[in-house]
Amino acid sequence: MKFNKQQWQWIFYDWANSGYGILVVTAVLPVYFKAIASENGISATNSTALWGYANSFGTLIVSLMAPLLGALADYPNSKRRWLNLFTWVGIVMTFALAVIPVNQWVALLIIYVLSVIGYSGGNLFYDSFLTDVADNQQMDAVSTTGYGMGYLGGVLAFTIFLGAQLTGGFNGLLSSYGIAKFSFILAAAWWLIFAWPLLRHGHQYHNVQAVTDPVVDSFKRLGRTLYHVKQHRKIFWFLVAYFFYIDGVDTIFTMATAIGKDLGIETTMLMLVLLMVQLIAFPCSILYGWLAQKTSNRLAILVGIIIYLFICLDALRLKSLADFWILAILVGTSQGGLQALSRSYFGQLIPKDSSSEFFGFYNILGKFSAILGPVIVGFVTQLTNKSTVGAASLSILFLIGLIIFLMLPRLTQETSD
Fold first, then answer.
1. Which tens digit of pLDDT belongs to each residue from 36-69?
2. 0.90 exceeded by pTM
3. What DSSP line would sit under 119-154, residue for residue?
4. Residue 170 — left, alpha, or beta (φ > 0 → left; ψ -120 to 50 → alpha)?
């Protein structure tokens, strides 16, 4: 389909924060943190667990605020202001990662947590803008293209970083730690440049009526929504299923590099594996959108959950680089498509004038699940002293999500209204 100007602005926000997602969350900062932690006498197993706990704490903060923030953003001309606030927090804190002294691993984790708050909060309002830029028939295509372009943007940002990594810090200009800090600056600049069109021009078409006291009114609206939850049974059960399976998706994303290091895979090879995942995810995200249009978004989501369930179970045999490559490629085939179609499936279910409020619940369940997953991996890894067993333990989350989602209907014009 042909996208209009505002849809492209929305799509490019995903491109913008993809540099943060791949460079900070997945590729560089986990390795950088483990190196600093090792220099300070922390074992590889414990540093992996600490990284998981930091991710959990950062998402907990946003989760607690998400429903109220979402409700506040549903008032006229509010959504873009909240998007700007959290995006700027994320950008500034990402820049700050580059100035923390290498021996201050606790400060590094604190700044990282603050950047996660900005990143996660910004995504709440970005997701809710989907109902403003696309109708029900367009949502699957717009959402999957957003994820696909996000992966492509991540590949380009990652390629610039690899240029520094593979040339030894631009022929010795940067040390190994300097290369890592360069990646944080790159991620922040990338985020600012490509998010600017939506930050500047994003238009909110759907909203609730303006009131004199939006904070009090937001609490009342949240109370009414929770009280009348039986009127939104499809939304409720989707969110329960989403809570479980998206937990596994997010945890694999945030813990993959640390697990790879525990297997003894060199940093440069991990970077190449992650680059391939991004390259595969770009067309596969769009392919999931095509599958949803040809069959249903329900079937496409089920396919993604089943693939992830297999990935977790197959992690038990992870022993070599080749095994890691195989699972990484499988992640690349389904990561973006599953997340994008979950977003558009939810967007088709909810009332459009309260989209931010409902995406607040979507966010809180997604983020609370992201607290559970890393804790499970961290606990099982410490219990068994094997991070592969920790990864395999995530299969229970996908299984529960799959069973619940099987009960949900295929969306039609009737069920999505």
1. 888 888 888 788 788 878 877 887 788 788 888 8
2. no
3. HHHHHHHHHHTHHHH--HHHHHHHHHHHHHHHHHHH
4. left
